[in-house]
Structure formats: structure tokens, C-alpha cells
Amino acid sequence: xxxxxxxxxxxxxxxxxxxxxxxxxxxxxxxxxxxxxxxxxxxxxxxxxxxxxxxxxxxxxxxxxxxxxxxxxxxxxxxxxxxxxxxxxxxxxxxxxxxxxxxxxxxxxxxxxxxxxxxxxxxxxxxxxxxxxxxxxxxxxxxxxxxxxxxxxxxxxxxxxxxxxxxxxxx
Length: 171
Hints:
By secondary structure, the chain is mainly alpha-helical. The protein contains 5 helices and no strands.
């Protein structure tokens, strides 16, 4: 009732401290940007949406995500196979072997980067959203309910005093 009357402008609302309001606004801003950064980093690390969904499901089921071959590693494999077909002694075969080995190392570095970014960057962001933010939201709801209770009590007290004053004036 208090909430509805406040929304309709029929009841007074106790304002929170300006510093606290600022903290709440900063918390909301932090949450929004954290969600955006988390989503975009996931897209950067795994551009394939179906693979991201699969990884998400494995994570929620507490199972190990199967290891995927990176595009660089796949290219290295193709180059090595082509070099074997052309012959390792031919100039083209030697070049394919060298470039294939470099691509393999690049693919392995990419895999390590994805793994490291997931552990050291994405995990803390998820921990904030799933832990700290839930706590902030819960405490905010509790505070809002307590404020509504306080305002409802103030309104009842004001009505009781008005009724008391009216009864004192009327003989």
C-alpha cells in the first residue's frame, strides 16, 4: 500500500542519504558494465555462439569442457599433411612444415590465452555477478522493504496525531 501510494504521489517517501544513493548508482553502473564486458569477452574468446552455449551447459552441469582444436592448430595440421604429400624435401614442403609449425605454436598460444583469460579475467567477473551482486540486490530489497515499513508507520502516526488533534478540538 505504501509503495503504491508513493508511486501515485499520495504518500511521503523517506529519501535515502545522498552518499548512499550515489553508491547504489555506482553499483548499478558496475553491474551493467561488468555484464557487457563479460559477454563481449566471451564473444571474443569464442566467436561461435553454439560453442559458447555448449560451454555454458558444461559449466552449469559441472563437467569438464571438451578440448577444441583452435583454427591455428587446424591450419597447422593441414599444412603438415600437405607437406607430407608434397614431400618434406621439396621447397614447398619445407615451407609448409615451417609455417605449419609456427601455426601450431600460435594455435597453442591462443589456446593458452583463452584458458588464462577465462580463469584470470572471466571468473572474477562471474563471481561478482553471481555472488557480490546477488548480495547487493538482496540487501537493497531488504532496505527498500524496511524503508516502506518506516514510511507506513510514519503515515499511521501522522493520521493518529491528526485524529487525536481533531478529537481534542471537537468537544
